[in-house]
Design brief:
The protein has about 290 residues and is of the alpha/beta class. It contains 10 helices and 12 strands. It is globular and about 60 Å long. The structure holds 2'-monophosphoadenosine-5'-diphosphate.
């Protein structure tokens, strides 16, 4: 019942989440329920894997159609792809891998950032009524705090959408390196509180500052938040971080980290099945 497994037939497509540990993952329940609801002939398993390379070479038949990757295998997964999406290559990590039906080759993607961008676009679109063809991020000044895997992903993603990017990081050298790749501006995180060249900017936190158990911490002082029209936090434990609570108090629109997770599940579902995601069902399972 937990995984809602359907009867396995000769043409059932096998999917799974590759990680270690994996017992806590909500993904098997989520995707099995979602596959079933749209009548897709697939299953999705929790895969406790030590060596991604060994796993991939053992389960190489076309029945093994796609995988999600989680800690600690996002980097190893990339090395096992036949082909890697350019953004995933820049980030140095994949979040999902799809087997092409024509030649059986495995292609890796990083869709984590797409979830964050979709959630931010939706919140912006809803507030300014922009036409769907133009990203509401185009032309916006977008400040990314953090320059690790998640920071890189978001910086590339919003750059592609036409935003002007600022990278703020504790270690300035990493901010500079990332900013130079997206035609952006680098700043030390400690100086971000005094940076407000214009009003109505967008702020995204990808650092771990404010995550459980140190929930009283915040990466940017409250006084600075009034310059931002929208604030997103990739942290989702807790859901309402100090940063988001203070942004809300300063009058900004806020986007929760949980929305990033929900939206990347929509994207992965569509990659796995080629069908539109059952969005309400996915929201209900993850609620
Ligand atoms: P992820 O894959 O989640 O992005 P990561 O690659 O380990 O994780 O990156 C962590 C990010 O959080 C980095 O930008 C890191 O800043 P440094 O490059 O200076 O290390 C940032 N970070 C972590 N702890 C921090 C702290 N206490 N204050 C400020 N930034 C912090």
């Amino acid at each position: 019942e937990l995984y809602n497994l359907r009867q396995i037939e000769a043409d059932t497509k096998v999917h799974g989440v590759i990680g270690n540990p994996i017992g806590h993952s909500k993904s098997p329940h989520l995707y099995n329920a979602a596959f079933k609801s749209v009548g897709f002939n697939g299953i999705y398993l929790p895969l406790l894997v030590d060596s991604v390379a060994n796993y991939i070479s053992t389960y190489s038949s076309p029945d093994f159609a796609g995988y999600s990757y989680t800690i600690p295998h996002k980097e190893d997964g990339l090395k096992c792809c036949d082909e890697v999406d350019p953004i995933a290559k820049e980030i140095g990590a994949i979040s999902c891998m799809i087997r092409r039906t024509d030649d059986g080759k495995l292609k890796g993607y990083n869709v984590d950032y797409l979830g964050a961008i979709a959630a931010i676009e939706e919140a912006l679109g809803a507030s300014n009524g922009a036409p769907a063809s133009v990203s509401p991020l185009a032309g916006k000044l977008f400040v990314v705090m953090g320059a690790g895997g998640a920071g890189k992903a978001l910086a590339y993603g919003v750059y592609e959408k036409g935003a002007r990017v600022v990278v703020a990081n504790r270690t300035y050298g990493k901010a500079e390196e990332l900013a130079s790749k997206v035609g952006g501006h680098a700043i030390a995180l400690a100086n971000l509180k005094d940076f407000h060249p214009e009003e109505g900017m967008i702020l995204a936190n990808t650092t771990s500052v404010g995550m459980k158990p140190r929930t009283e911490e915040t990466p940017l002082a409250k006084e600075a938040l009034k310059h931002y029209a929208l604030v997103f936090d990739a942290i989702y434990t807790p859901k309402l971080t100090t940063l988001l609570r203070e942004a809300q108090e300063a009058g900004s629109t806020i986007v929760y980290g949980t929305e990033m997770f929900i939206n990347q599940a929509f994207v992965q579902f569509e990659r796995f099945t080629g069908l539109p995601a059952p969005e309400q069902l996915i929201r209900d399972v993850l609620a």
